[in-house]
């Protein structure tokens, strides 16, 4: 896991915006942008994937905005099985892209849960290795999935590439 850690953490602070485009029409963001309806409208998002879904942040805010919502009630804990959401998260993102949409994938801070799902999408639907996916996302956004999520992404890489 040392090599993957080196890709993710270059020894400097992680700097992020509220939302960063990490792949065409695919953004990773934080809760601040996710609850800012004016900004979501202005950026013309059509889909939101909330990786920190809860009764408090359940997608009702988007009613009447023409935004398709999906929530994953994930915890940012190394013990949480985020891999259980890799396929449905990747499929939601893929469908949004096929529909010509613009998607925001977010969690609380936008560096662990949401980044993990986007990395899984790039691996599953864009045929990238884990290293390629990390490099691609890091061109645009500082990310740092927790160690448990990294292990799960490494396992996905092994399943896909041996």
Automatic annotation (TrEMBL):
Molecular function via GO: MAP kinase phosphatase activity; protein serine/threonine phosphatase activity; protein tyrosine phosphatase activity; protein tyrosine/serine/threonine phosphatase activity
Entry annotated with the keyword Nucleus: yes
Signal peptide bounds: none
Active site: 107 (phosphocysteine intermediate)
Catalyzed reaction equations: O-phospho-L-tyrosyl-[protein] + H2O = L-tyrosyl-[protein] + phosphate; O-phospho-L-seryl-[protein] + H2O = L-seryl-[protein] + phosphate; O-phospho-L-threonyl-[protein] + H2O = L-threonyl-[protein] + phosphate
The keyword Isomerase is annotated on this UniProt entry: no
Enzyme Commission (EC) number: 3.1.3.16, 3.1.3.48
Domain Tyrosine-protein phosphatase: 17-162
Example GO biological process: negative regulation of MAPK cascade
Alphabetized Pfam families for the sequence: DSPc (PF00782)
Residue span, Tyrosine specific protein phosphatases domain: 84-141
Gene3D superfamilies: Protein tyrosine phosphatase superfamily
SMART domains assigned to the protein according to its UniProt record, in alphabetical order: DSPc
Subcellular localization, as worded in the UniProt entry: Cytoplasm; Golgi apparatus; Nucleus
InterPro entries the record matches: Atypical_DUSP_subfamA, Dual-sp_phosphatase_cat-dom, Prot-tyrosine_phosphatase-like, Tyr_Pase_AS, Tyr_Pase_dom, TYR_PHOSPHATASE_DUAL_dom
Segments forming a coiled coil: none
Keywords from the named record: Cytoplasm, Golgi apparatus, Hydrolase, Nucleus, Protein phosphatase
Enzyme category, top tier: hydrolase
GO CC, alphabetical: Golgi apparatus; nucleus
Principal localisation: cytoplasm
Similarity comment: Belongs to the protein-tyrosine phosphatase family. Non-receptor class dual specificity subfamily.
Role, per record: Dual specificity phosphatase able to dephosphorylate phosphotyrosine, phosphoserine and phosphothreonine residues, with a preference for phosphotyrosine as a substrate.
Subunit composition and interactions: Interacts with HSF4.
Identification of the protein by name: Dual specificity protein phosphatase
Organism: Phoxinus phoxinus
């Amino acid at each position: 896991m040392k090599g993957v850690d080196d890709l993710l953490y270059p020894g400097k602070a992680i700097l992020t915006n509220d939302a960063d485009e990490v792949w065409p029409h695919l953004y990773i963001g934080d809760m601040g942008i996710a609850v800012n309806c004016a900004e979501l409208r202005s950026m013309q998002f059509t889909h939101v994937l909330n990786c920190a879904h809860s009764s408090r942040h359940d997608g009702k805010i988007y009613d009447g905005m023409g935004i398709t919502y999906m929530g994953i009630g994930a915890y940012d804990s190394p013990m949480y099985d985020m891999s259980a959401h890799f396929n449905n998260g990747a499929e939601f993102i893929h469908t949004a892209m096929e529909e010509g949409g613009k998607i925001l994938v977010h969690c609380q801070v936008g560096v662990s849960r949401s980044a993990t799902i986007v990395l899984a999408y790039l691996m599953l639907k864009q045929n990238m290795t884990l290293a390629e996916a990390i490099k691609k996302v890091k061109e645009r956004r500082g990310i740092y999935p927790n160690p448990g999520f990294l292990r799960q992404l490494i396992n996905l890489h092994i399943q896909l590439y041996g």
